[in-house]
Structures are given as structure tokens and as C-alpha cells.
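Exam prep: given the inputs below (a chain plus iron/sulfur cluster), describe the expected output before reading on.
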Amino acid sequence: MVMDSALLPIEHKLDEGIPLSREDGLTLFRTPDLHSLGRLAKTVKERKSGKNVYYVLNRYINSTNVCYANCSFCSFAKGEKDAEAVRMSADEVVAKALETGTNFNQIHIVGGHDPRQLSLDYWLPLMRRFKALLPHVQLSLFTSAEIDYLARRHRLTYDEILSQLRAAGLDNINGGGAEIFAPRFRALVCPNKVDAAHWLEVHEVAHRHGVASNATMLYGTIETLEERVEHLIMLRESQQRSPGFNAFIPLAFHPDGNKLSHHGWTSGLDDIRLFAVSRLMLNNFDHIKAYWMIQGLKVCQLALEFGADDMDGTHGSTDEERIYHSAGTQSGQYVDDREFRRLIEEVGYVAVRRNSTYETFAPDWEPEGRVPAGAGAARAAAV
Ligand code: SF4
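Solution:
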């Protein structure tokens, strides 16, 4: 039963399949009736994906943290001469990926706007190498902010650059860099990063080239509720124009070591509400992802009751995620796939292994074929 009567017309629209309005979005962010909000989101999520909750065996790498964009929420970026600067050679990136073995389905790499590493000369051969070594592994590379940087650097249109990246094996673009689309927010927080129109355009062009993608929203700093709602509606309209987004991922601000530290941590209630509202507003997105690295595993389990149907990936790494670890996350670097299945099944859902584009696999699926030299080094060392 809905306790807040303001939710009744929204429930009616959801039952009729009518997209929610800006006013509905604000009502959802403001309702004190969190339980009904969660119930509505859970109902909508189960209409889409039933009891399935997805996870991926993947390898996550931040290949460079060199960046001069100077976003004020960022704790990750370093200058080239900084002692903490990390800039991997292509050989190092391949070696990191192969440490994982061969039984994984996604390589996820994002990095800074590094003037040396973020170039086609570095990436195209590396992508072809990955595809030759690990043809079953999907390449989930870059954010659209990085692709915009690449395009400007090489003086190519989005169409031209995405055509080259697709031909070299790009399967999926990661969802970062969206932050909050409102010009007011971007001018204050990330003035040197791609603007909203271009962020969306990169994704729309990518989708037309057969490259899938995800989308995000950074919440918990200076944004207003109106700006959050507008952000969600802009994503929904973009998906309408050029379908290809698979998942939406709410990104909670982390305050350690950046210029917005005074905003502190988001609350668990804020986090849960974000999952539910995004599930309800984004009627044309198939998946809402609770990213354990950011939210922690227990909040992610709770998020499954509030509209999320994905928990991201194992990461298969001991030290590679730097973005959220620089900003204070208490999460580790790796979750075993058996643990994912236990966490999902413990709260009444069915754990489903996937790749970046949501093709599904049996839990014990393994690739066929030869094992590349160096594969499984980390695993062998750990035994
Ligand atoms: S958020 Fe990304 S673009 Fe902004 S400073 Fe950090 S690494 Fe650079």
C-alpha cells in the first residue's frame, strides 16, 4: 500500500507504461515514503529482469592517472611529475590483463586525459592485441569524455574516431564523465571536461556504430534535485534518439583528498533513493547497476530491493582501481564470483553471469583455445 498519496498518480503511470515527468521525478526525490518508493522500483525492475541479478568476471585497469582537467571532485588525477603518477606502457596493460588468466569476459579500462597516453597510436594497436590474445573478452574502454579528448586531439569527428575504435575491437564505452549535465554544475565543478551535449553525442554516435555503452550520474555535491531529474530525463531522451545504453550507474561522491571534501559522504538513504528514482525515471534503460566498489556490498544488496539488477564485476585485481580508492572507498579491489553469487542469492535473486553487452553465461563457462603466454600469472603466484 502507498502511504504518500502523491505517489498514487505515479504508480498509475508506471502501471500504464507512461514515462514519468519532471514533476514526478521531484516527487520521488522528496517523498518521505521510502518503503513505497522501493516497492514501486522493485516492481518495475522485476517486470524488466525478473529475479535475475547480473555480474561479470572482469579485469579493471586504470592505465594512467595523468590528467590536467582539474575537476574539483576528483582525487585520482596527478601531474606527470607527481610521485604518484602512474602511466602504464601497452605491454604493462596487457600483462595486467593476462594476470587474470583467460576465464573472464570484460576488460574495463578508464584513465585521465593524459596528453601522452590518450592517443590512437597507443590505443589502436593495444586493442587489436587484446582481441588477438583474448577474442572472447569484450573491450569496455574509455569514457565519452576520453573519446571527446581523443577526437579533438586527432582532429577527427566522432563518427570518424568511433569508426576506427569499433574496427579495432571496441565493444562498450564506460559511463563516466557524465557527472551532472547542468551547465551551472559543469562550470563550477568540471569546466574543462566535455559538455553535456557532446557527452551525449559521443554515446549516440557510438550506438550507431554498434558500440554499446553505460551512463552515470555523480551525486552528493552541489547539484540540486531539479538538476538530478533533468540529468535523468536527458539520458532517457538520448536513449530514445539513439538506443544503446545498457545500464545506468549512480555514482556516490567520495570526499577524501579533493576540493569538495566539505560535502562529506552521501548517506545510505540517499544512495538507496537514487537507485529507486533512476529505475523509475529511466523506463527505457534495461539495467540499473549497484557498483559494489562505490556503495559497498551490503548497500548493493539493499539496492536490489530498490530497483538495481546488476552488481558489476569481480575486477580480478589486487591494486588497479584508483579512482574511488584515492577518494576514500573502504571497498576492496576484488570480489570472487562465488561470493557474488552468494550475495545475490542470499537476498532472494538469481545470479546471472554476463559480459558487457549482457550476453549471459553459465557460472562455470570457460573459453576454449590456447592459453596466451603469461596468462594466469597472478593466480599461479597466489596458489
Ligand atoms: S575526473 Fe577525469 S577528467 Fe576530471 S580531473 Fe579526474 S581524471 Fe581528469
